[in-house]
Every structure is written in structure tokens, then in C-alpha cells.
Amino acid sequence: xxxxxxxxxxxxxxxxxTPLSNVLHHxxxxxxxxxxxxxxxxxxxxxxxRDSQYGNLTVNLDSPAKLIxxxxxDVRGSLLMLIxxxxxxxxxxxxxxxxxxxxxxxxxxxxxxxxxxxxxxxxGESLAAETYHxxxxxxxxxxxxxxxxMQDKTKGLVNLWEECVVDVADMSPPAxxxxxxxxxxxxxxxxxxxxxxxxxxxxxxxRGMVIYAHENEAGEILSYSGRDVRFDEKWQNWIRDGRxxxxxxxxxxxxxxxxxxxxxxxxxxxxxxxxxxxxxxGQLGLVLVEGQNDVIRLDALGIAAIGLCSNRATDEQIxxxxxxxxxxxxxxxxxxxxxxxxxxxxAQDLLWELASQGLTVKLAWSRTSHDGRFxxxxxxxxxxxxxxxxxxxxxxxx
Length: 398
Description:
Blueprint: H1 3-17, H2 20-26, E1 38-42, E2 56-60, E3 68-70, E4 76-77, H3 79-88, H4 99-112, H5 173-180, H6 187-193, E5 195-197, E6 210-215, E7 221-227, H7 231-240, E8 252-254, H8 275-283, E9 286-289, H9 292-300, E10 305-307, H10 315-328, E11 332-335, H11 341-356, E12 360-363, H12 384-396
Parallel strand pairs: 9-10, 9-11, 11-12
Antiparallel strand pairs: 1-2, 2-3, 3-4, 5-6, 6-7, 7-8
Helix pairs in contact: 3-4
């Protein structure tokens, strides 16, 4: 039998002998609740999957190879593929485990099992990763977002926002309630931001949701996302039920193939040239928030903000923030996260990253600042009075 074939057989045998619980324990994750059937967990290959309703990964416990399938990003493979994802946070560079990535996953599998690599390979010891030398394919090109108008399959959806309902009288009851709770989402604002309620008979998988257009700096529409109008209700029910991980509701749904970590919501260059926003940029700086509604609410108050569409920034977003801030606000940035535990954690990391890039960074609020008055709030909850009497004077201090 060829040496490589023997090696593969031994790797397969080791996979079969490795309980999934051992792998999960190694990465500080909870073990499967059962010994057969399917185990579901958060997808480790793509951060965007965490915001998708399809963001789970399934492990087949009855398969000797512990076959996995990521429902959002479509990654498939054996237990080795899962180990690669847990280690790197991304899929293999070629779509399959090969070369150095394969060897690294094998070595990690052996480490989990308490096996030690030896510098030499004795006869009969075919498990050493050094004996496997498949050709390493060229790296995949970096991801990019292409304007809808340039994509044959999606260019017909460029103006999907025009089909949205913006009058609450014509919406479903949950959608109407969503907009009434946000009176600053007027029909004029909705048309300006290319958003609205897409009826249940709309021509998109986002039908029945509030949809938002995502544009690049040139103002071209790259994709749409949907917001569940019943999320707040589902979230409270989830908390009441003890926060079961498998039933955690998703606030937003993003179209597969859109890399939201490459963009910032509200980044259109011509938008930041607005007179009121230029005044805000000059006096205070560029405000960074999490969500789309946060950007829109602050815009209505005359505050120049851009959004991460997450509570954590990617390297690409950080680079773009630095470039925009240096150009538009003399390198001054204000962080205004959601005032919850996740928001503060993300803001702490972002503050460090931006300060390390030479920007001047301020924190607008926290759960304990301002005598705790803003604990639990999001920027979209701000009133004119809160901004003018509490936050603006605080942020205007030298």
C-alpha cells in the first residue's frame, strides 16, 4: 500500500476514535447533549454566519468521520475541517483541506488526543504529518462586494427598495408597530436611505421584513439586509425561556455572498459632504455605531455616524474607518456602542485598535457613565434632548 494511502487511513482511524466532546472541550465549548443524531453549534468559519438565521453548523454524530455541514456558508467536511475552522475562524483557502492546512489540522487532532509528533518516522508509523505532501493550490482571491447592477443574477434587484411600503397605514400590524416606535423613520427618511417594509408578496427572500440597502462609497447598492419586525418580541420570549442557544433569534438577515465585514453602513462619500454632517465632523468627529437604525437616527439629529452592522469591527473596516476619519474629521472618532455587555466588549477592542492607528478616540457613553442614565440604550433610542443636553456638551469638552 502506498505510504500516503496508509497515512490517510491512520488519520481516518484517529478521527473515528476521537469523540466530538474532546474536540469541543479543547476549545472551551459545551459538549453535545446526545450521543447520536445531529449536534448543532455556531458556525466557526465565517463571522457573518452569526448574524444569519442559517448560522448553525451541524455535526453528524453517527458518522465515523463526524461529517459537518455549515448551513450559512456551505462548508462541508470531516472532523478535521471543524478543527481547522475552530483554529483559524475561516474556511480552507482552496475550499478543501490541503497542504499546510491539512497538516496543521492533523497535528491539532493528535494534540487533542495527547499524541506527540516524533522527528523521525519509524517503519509502521505512518501517522506523522511530515509524510503527506500534497500540492498546495494557489490562494483564492480576497473576497469583494460587487455592485448589484454589475451582477447578471441580481441586477434586477437594484431598485428593490422602491417596492417597499413606507406608509404605516399600508403595513402589516407588526411592521406598522415597528415604525410607530421609531417616528423618525418618516417616509422621507425611508426614501433617502432606500429602506422600508417589503410586503409578504415581495420578490425577495427578505419579504415580510424591513429591508435596508447597503451602498459602497460611490453610492452603488451592493446588497440588501432584512430586519425582523418581531425581533424584540422574540428576544424577550427567548430571555424568558432561559436563553436556549439553539433558539436564539436573529435580528438581521443578510443575503448569502455579501461580505458585510468589508463595508460600513452610511459610508457613501457624498453623504459626509452634507453641510450639517460636515459641521458635526468638524466639531466632534466621526461617530461609530453598530446598526443601521443607529446611523439613520443620528443622521436625523445632524450627527455624522457610520455603522459596523455588528458589535465588532473587522480589519477591513478598521482600515476604512482610519481613512475616512483622517480625511473627514482630522482623525477624531467617537465610539457609541449599544450599552450592553456585548457592545462594550466590542468597543473596548475597537478603541485600542483605532488608538493604535493614531486616531483620537472618545467614548460617548457606557452602562455606568452619566450616572447610569443610558444603561441598556442604543443610539437609535436617543432623543433630541438627550443629545443636546447630555451627550453633546460632554463630547464637546477638550
